[in-house]
Amino acid sequence: MTEAEVYQALLEGPDERRVLLGAAVAPEALARYAAGLANREGGVILVGVRPAGRVEDASALEPLQLTHVLHELSGGALLPHVERVETAEGVVWALHVPKSPFVVSAGPGPAPYWDGTRLAALPASREVAAPPDPTARPLPEAELDDLDPAELVRLQDRLRERGSPLAEAAPLERLRALGMASELEGRWVPTVTGLLLAGRPVALARLVPQTEVSFYRHEGDDVDYVFREDLLRPIPAALERLRELIQATNRFHPLTVGLFRVEVWDFDVEVYREGLLNAFVHRDWAAHDAVQVHLHPDRLEIANPGGLAPGMTPENILRHPPHRRNPTLAAALARLGYVERAGQGVDKMYRLMLRYGKEPPEYRAWPHAVTLVLHNPGFDADFVRWVSEAQERQGAFTLDYLIVAAALRRGAQPTAALARALALGPAATRKLLARMQAAGLIVPEGQGRGRRWRLAPTPPERGAPPNRTG
């Protein structure tokens, strides 16, 4: 959304697909307005608008703060795309809320419905039940004894490390709060999430054999592998073992930047951990196929059953609102500190790989499977130094800044090529490039349609005049 579009929206006022709110809107009210839009046709909420139709600066708000609030207060149903729009009067946040296929609630009372001017109760004719969550399903053929005591202690320790009151709750209350157990006909039984997080191997083999993860190590680009291990363990234990297997041959390269020593790994632990967690959280647990991990010297491939969400493609995955295929499992992993509720895993992988001079993550999608490829063609030491020096002088980069800088490290690029790398429209790309030019991070070459951009040789100090050479 552009500055001109914001002012046009203020001129026209709210309508069936647009809500205008002040910067000081209460979190509970924001969540109800977002739910009201989702329960109609979806739309956009502009946060940072005065009642008189003027902008008030909402720069004190953070995008992650906004997504966390909406996700928490809606029980995980609301995950809008948040866009920062800079205007002459200050920052406005545009929250793009998709239409929900089922009823979204936010707080006590009836589900809200945005009628174009105010919130109302959702008409009965529009009520649609939420789709079944396979990871919330109770397992009547299982017993609580099918949960491994050692794995339950592991989960309790993680809650204690995070300062969660659940760590000191009664065991059954902790299982219920994490969605790991459910009462069924007068007795408590594990849910699918319960077994996925703490099931004994024999129970996993009997009830959810698709929990298995197959790890392969290859010496080169050959299909044949030199080592294989099949893991039938709950997710936390599988993550630990996969880390051991990958680290066994993982190498790091020391790099000195100023007074600091940076270690650039062939495969960054945080990056592949996010990739593995995404495979577990977003896979199709109804499919009886295993997650597969293939480690080659030049790449790590993580494949999981289940295609991308409708409307999501490898090209727009960075911008697409997060999709909740297994909300109970995702919520439990979030409370345990394994994943972010707001769906920041893809952003985190991009940020770390680009910052360390690597290629961005690659997604390969089929109707019933997705493969994440983390490439290891070496790293660009000069670029890592450039980014480190720029961030030391000017502060942390946004992900968009990193994407542009990474695209330019091999040479000058036209605006259209940078728009494709960013997955943004032409107007938003031009505005971003103008900000980077003003900061002295990039410089233009040529004019008009032939204009290209390249990295500035040395990033200036914060507030220094931009480098206008070239």
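(the above was protein one; protein two follows)
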Amino acid sequence: MPAIFFFGDAVSAAGWHLAGVQTVVPAEGEEADWLARACAPPTQLVLLTAAVADQLPVALQQRLFALVAPLVLVLPDVRDQVAMPDLADGVRQQLGVSL
């Protein structure tokens, strides 16, 4: 297993592949299966586009983002079709000071 995985669209995956990263362009509905396999040791970093993250069930998203190892990060979608999560708003909601 490689140390870094990228999950996203084919265009972005081509760039990450050139950088030496293991890339996966999951078919719709197969994202969770691929992520379960990718989050096993020795993987250290999992990169997801916002579009892939948006396809995951909320409970799975919460489990993934709570992992210490591997680190799971969401990247902007190349087509900008799915907005990135608003991290500042998420923190405000958790603190109970949301506007």
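Reviewer note on protein two: The helical segments are 10-18, 31-38, 50-55, 58-66, 87-95.
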